[in-house]
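To the wet lab folks,

You asked to see what we're planning to order before we commit. Fair enough. Below is the target structure as tokens, and below that is the sequence we designed to fit it. If anything looks off to you, flag it before the synthesis order goes out.
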């Protein structure tokens, strides 16, 4: 599947709103240090284009959770491109969630909410309730699976945004997948406009996640399921 052409089209189709978002991000960044990227071209390629990559993979009308959405990536571009879907972003850092809320109202995104929560906390109120869970630059895949898979309905799809090491990470997440009820479905590579290689790792939830996951006390990160 070619993910680049749809991402390029989305960049063009939503140019005006993305300009507004870029300006807002860069202004607020001076106050709150939200992103390491500060050049307009970089924001376009590495935040906007990259975020759009998963857009064609979302089923019609899906409820989507973006875990560790940070300053709104991939959350905000996906919500812009997929008005038919509903989005919830969660992040452990309050200033980022406040930014996402403000950006979402600035862009008049009625299908996008954000909560200041850790993914593990969301698992108690919204367990097995999303069609799709996305995550970018949050944790290594074996850790990420413990955050994301409990949130998915059976049959739902986890989409992890990764770099060129995606396949190796997937190999290292085999045990986590089998314990958590996931199975690897595909790894789709694509290139950013800068030429850098990226990949989406698709994991299908094929069985219920046992209730003991996610483990408490930051165990997913400190003692990954390996
Ligand atoms: N997805 C964004 C942000 C990446 S930075 C992007 O790609 O630009 C990683 C973010 O994940 C941080 O904002 C951090 O607060 C958040 N995070 C890490 N572990 C988390 C957890 N368990 N639950 C919620 N957010 C988490």
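Sequence we intend to order:
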């Amino acid at each position: 599947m070619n993910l680049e052409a749809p991402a390029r089209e989305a960049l063009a189709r939503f140019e005006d709103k993305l300009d507004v978002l870029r300006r807002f991000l860069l202004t607020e960044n001076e106050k709150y240090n939200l992103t390491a990227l500060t050049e307009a071209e970089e924001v376009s390629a590495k935040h906007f284009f990259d975020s759009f990559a998963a857009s064609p993979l979302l089923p019609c009308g899906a409820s989507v959770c973006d875990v560790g959405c940070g300053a709104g990536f991939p959350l905000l571009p996906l919500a812009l491109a997929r008005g038919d879907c509903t989005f919830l972003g969660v992040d452990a850092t309050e200033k980022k969630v406040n930014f996402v809320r403000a950006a979402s109202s600035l862009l008049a995104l009625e299908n996008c909410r954000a909560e200041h929560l850790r993914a593990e906390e969301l698992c108690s109120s919204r367990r097995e309730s999303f069609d799709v869970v996305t995550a970018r630059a949050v944790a290594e895949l074996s850790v990420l699976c413990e955050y994301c898979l409990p949130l998915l309905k059976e049959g739902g799809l986890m989409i992890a945004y990764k770099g060129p090491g995606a396949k190796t990470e997937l190999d290292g997440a085999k045990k986590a997948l089998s314990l958590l009820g996931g199975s690897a479905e595909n790894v789709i590579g694509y290139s950013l406009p800068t030429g850098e290689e990226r990949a989406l790792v698709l994991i299908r939830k094929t069985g219920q996640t046992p209730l003991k996951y996610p483990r408490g006390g930051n165990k997913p990160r400190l003692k990954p399921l390996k």
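Structural context that might help your review: The longest strand covers residues 152-162. The chain has a mean pLDDT of 97.

Thanks,
Computational group
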